[in-house]
């Protein structure tokens, strides 16, 4: 099955401008063209775009994504280099997750504290109302 640029954008969640940009900088190979000269993306293209989206979501810089994309053209001969890129990115992701967990713990602590304060205020409010009555 083949997909137009609009369909590929819809399937991947990337904009058409992003797809063109990725093609221009070499992140994706130029897709096939239909009889009218329009881009025609394959299932494999969509799979690669999905992987690129995953890499972006991990915070991988475009520069490193381009290096990974360049290396993939060397096939098995570049497997070690590509694996190393992914190992380093995985370590960075794990570090970021740990940082976010610490932030989440801080937020949880503050929320719990405010809930306790609200309960105390609610308990005192009827007493204050009785004292002024």
From TrEMBL:
Keywords: DNA-binding. Gene3D superfamilies: 1.10.1660.10. It comes from the Bacteria. GO terms for molecular function: DNA binding; DNA-binding transcription factor activity. It holds the Pfam family MerR_1. PROSITE patterns: HTH_MERR_1, HTH_MERR_2. The keyword DNA-binding applies. Residues 1-71 form the HTH merR-type domain. This is DNA-binding transcriptional regulator, MerR family. It comes from Allokutzneria albata (Kibdelosporangium albatum).
